[in-house]
């Protein structure tokens, strides 16, 4: 069950989205550690969603529905702010790219909050948990295996993207990195507009 959940966590993390763009942008600016911190924030949120799903908490599912709109708008504003900040900040030189502990904590917390702004994901994890447990209530050991698997699967993707992708990104040269970073900022703004459109329809 751990490995099945791990594959699910990997599949959830892998598609290109706002967190992937943030991971790429922060890897360009602050190095692989900053990119990984961003990804681990998302992986932690995925694990929390998985925990709520496997626990079958009716209160968590109810709150997910009640808070869907305000959290969607909060996520929209956070995405827009991150996109504008990416476009406004000058690209960092290689010698200045390593961030300290404060930068890592901010990257982690920002990605955690951004991922948690999509509470409807709990419903997806609830369905996943039901499938993995054969439709029966998951035991404590099964819940732990599912949550740990989702986190490890998601985290493995961010590790590969931050370090493997970071090694490839470093070959782009300063001009290429600036263009890619600007592209990430524009796409983040695009995701903010998309999220606002969806929030208006909730």
UniProtKB/TrEMBL annotation:
Q: Does the record carry rRNA processing as a key word?
A: no
Cellular localisation:
Cell membrane
Q: Which domain of life is it from?
A: Bacteria
Q: Which spans of this chain does the record mark as coiled coil? A: none
Q: How does it sit in the membrane?
A: Multi-pass membrane protein
Pfam annotation, one family: LysE
Calcium: is it a keyword of this entry?
no
Q: Which residues cross the membrane?
A: 6-24, 36-61, 67-87, 108-132, 144-167, 179-200
Which UniProt keywords are given for this protein, alphabetically ordered? Cell membrane, Membrane, Transmembrane, Transmembrane helix
Q: What name does UniProt use for this protein? A: LysE family transporter
Question: What species was this sequence derived from?
Answer: Chromobacterium indicum
* Top-level taxonomy: Bacteria, Pseudomonadati, Pseudomonadota, Betaproteobacteria, Neisseriales
């Amino acid at each position: 069950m751990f490995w099945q959940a791990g594959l699910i966590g990997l599949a959830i993390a892998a598609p290109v989205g706002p967190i992937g763009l943030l991971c790429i942008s922060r890897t360009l600016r602050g190095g692989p550690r900053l990119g990984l911190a961003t990804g681990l924030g998302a992986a932690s949120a995925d694990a929390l969603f998985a925990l709520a799903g496997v626990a079958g908490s009716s209160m968590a599912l109810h709150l997910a529905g009640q808070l869907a709109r305000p959290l969607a708008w909060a996520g929209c504003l956070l995405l827009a702010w991150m996109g504008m900040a990416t476009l406004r900040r000058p690209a960092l030189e290689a010698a200045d790219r390593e961030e300290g502990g404060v930068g890592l904590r901010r990257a982690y917390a920002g990605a955690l909050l951004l991922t948690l702004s999509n509470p409807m994901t709990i419903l997806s994890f609830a369905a996943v948990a039901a499938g993995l447990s054969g439709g029966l209530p998951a035991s404590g050991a099964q819940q732990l295996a599912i949550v740990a698997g989702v986190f490890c699967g998601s985290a493995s993707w961010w590790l590969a993207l931050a370090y493997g992708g970071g090694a490839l990104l470093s070959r782009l040269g300063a001009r290429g990195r600036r263009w890619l970073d600007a592209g990430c900022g524009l796409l983040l703004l695009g995701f903010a507009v998309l999220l606002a459109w969806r929030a208006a329809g909730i």
